[in-house]
Design brief:
The complex is a heterodimer of chains A (285) and B (229). Chain A has 285 residues and is an alpha+beta fold. In chain A, 71% of the residues lie in helices and 8% in strands. Chain A folds into two domains: 169 residues, no CATH class; 98 residues, Alpha-Beta Plaits, CATH 3.30.70.3040. Chain A has a four-stranded antiparallel sheet. The two termini of chain B are 20 Å apart.
Chain lengths: 285, 229
């Protein structure tokens, strides 16, 4: 290494720390997004029918829903089935309905939208369209909840990008300064190389490579630290026993993302060296 | 004879003081030229201009057919590969061996390993330090270090060899040896220019002498000629 050992270690550790902070936000964003995606997968739209709708109109509505390209699955629940489900889910409250005499629960269709149309906006537009159909009394889904979640994830994404840009700039600066120190320490050698006919590329390439290696090492170390912290967190959740099953839903970056992050670290390190060499000035390196 | 170096009305100022003032000079291929003058006469400035280290404020400089004043920064390294340079302070890399120091000009050009070994051995043999090739320059005497420097300057077979006060750190005996080495190199066809203020060197070299005084080319003398401007 052209740069002395202590400077190298400090640069790698500082870069690793900066990239770990970015990684925390990135991990949070990825897991929240996965959670939102999983919730969206589970979302069912309840299409409640008007009371005493003739069977032909129910069947016509069912056909209409089934041929809709935004719909994946349609399940009809009759009034009797709805009452049976209510009694099964709320056995202690079922006596409330008995007092009314007639079954007040409406028939409904439980609709699962096609995967491409499960975003809050797509769902909203479909619901608005179905609400105008003949025989439909009401359409219901957890719209507020999903919209809030989507908004929250949007904010996390913005913060992750902001933090990412700032700390990446910090990593570039750290490695750039390390390269500059190396250049200053070896200016005599560089002068000799220039005097015997070394081109600027010949002199610069080793420093570019070292910057890239520093960046890659910092990034790899940050992933190691993140993984360690992640597993510690997951174990804590498991031991608490309160958030049953959540530890199973949490996921670390897949291998492809880890490799991409190491490459990104390499790119930042390379950029730091380039910036540093440009700042040293024309003709001097 | 062909001029390998031409300076045409070259002037250079440092802090409003003339380092060189309207210097016109031609050096033919194969010549041995002594550039004489006291400290601050402009000798080093002139030599630095020949390798593109400094640019003149006025005038033009030609080295081996190339107009140095019009070269782009990316072309300067290729000029320096044709011009060997020897310095008073040797400028050897202390952490590399003698062999590796001499090989440097070949390494930066990307020469094959076989060629490097052959040429470096020849250069070390020519200056009589082959037996020290694996040692560090710091373990050598000043005379030997200067020989290594000369080996590095000639390993590429340059067309011109420049030496800026090469004997400044040497005693008279070592000075005599180094100058003889330069004469030997010149005898093989390399144009040699030695900048010095050492009168011992003048006594040893009875060739062309160019004298600079405060940046002005005061006089020239060739073998068999009287002093002329």
């Amino acid at each position: 290494m052209r740069i002395n050992r202590t400077t190298t270690i400090v640069a790698v550790l500082t870069t690793a720390f900066a990239l770990t902070c970015v990684g925390i936000f990135l991990l949070l964003y990825v897991n929240l997004r996965n959670a939102a995606w999983s919730l969206q997968e589970d979302v069912k739209v309840m299409v409640y029918l008007e009371d005493r709708l003739p069977i032909e109109k129910v069947q016509a509505l069912e056909r209409k829903l089934k041929i809709d390209r935004m719909v994946d699955e349609v399940l009809f629940i009759s009034k009797e089935e709805a009452l049976g489900e209510f009694r099964a889910q709320f056995p202690s409250e079922s006596h409330l309905l008995e007092g009314l005499g007639e079954n007040p629960l409406p028939a409904s269709f439980v609709v699962t939208l096609a995967p491409n149309f499960r975003s809050p906006d797509a769902m909203k537009s479909w619901v608005e369209r179905v609400q105008t159909m003949e025989g439909v009394a009401k359409v219901d889904y957890n719209q507020e909840w999903l919209s809030l979640l989507a908004e929250f994830i949007g904010y996390i994404e913005l913060v992750a990008i902001g933090v990412g840009v700032l700390l990446s700039a910090a990593a570039v600066t750290i490695i750039g300064n390390t390269t500059r120190l190396a250049l200053l320490a070896r200016r005599e050698e560089i002068e000799i190389l220039r005097s015997v006919g070394a081109t600027r590329t010949f002199i610069r390439i080793p420093y570019f490579l070292e910057g890239a290696v520093l960046g890659a090492c910092g990034s790899a170390l940050s992933l190691g630290m993140l993984k360690f912290a992640f597993e510690l967190f997951r174990q804590e959740i498991r031991l608490t026993g309160r958030f049953g099953g959540i530890d199973g839903m949490l996921s670390f970056f897949p291998l492809s993302v880890c490799l991409a992050l190491v490459l990104a670290g390499m790119g930042l390190g390379f950029a730091g060296s380039v910036v540093s060499l440009l700042r040293v000035g024309e003709g001097r390196v | 004879m062909d001029a390998i170096i031409q300076l045409i009305h070259v002037s250079k100022w440092h802090d409003r003081k003339a380092a060189l003032s309207d210097v016109t000079l031609e050096i033919d291929k194969g010549e041995f030229v002594l550039l004489m003058g006291s400290s601050g006469a402009g000798k080093s400035t002139l030599l630095r201009m020949l390798i593109g280290e400094e640019q003149p404020d006025e005038g033009q400089i030609f080295v081996h057919g190339k107009n140095v004043t019009k070269l782009r920064p990316a072309e300067i390294p290729y000029l320096r590969r044709k011009v060997g340079a020897v310095f008073q302070d040797f400028r050897l890399l202390p952490k590399k061996s003698v062999f590796d120091n001499v090989a440097l000009p070949l390494i930066v050009q990307g020469a094959p390993e076989k060629d490097i070994r052959r040429k470096v051995t020849e250069a070390l043999r020519a200056v009589d330090v082959e037996h020290k090739k694996d040692q560090s320059p710091n373990s050598l005497s000043t005379g030997e270090q200067q020989r290594v420097c000369i080996a590095r300057a000639i390993v590429n077979g340059p067309v011109v060899l420049l030496a800026d006060e090469p004997t400044g750190n040497l005693d008279p005996e070592r000075t005599r040896e180094i100058i003889e080495l330069f004469k030997l190199i010149n005898a093989r066809g390399t144009t040699v220019i030695v900048a010095t203020h050492d009168p011992h060197v003048l006594n040893q070299v009875n060739r062309r002498v160019v004298t600079l005084v405060q940046g002005v080319l005061l006089s020239e003398r060739r073998i068999g000629q009287g002093v002329g401007a």
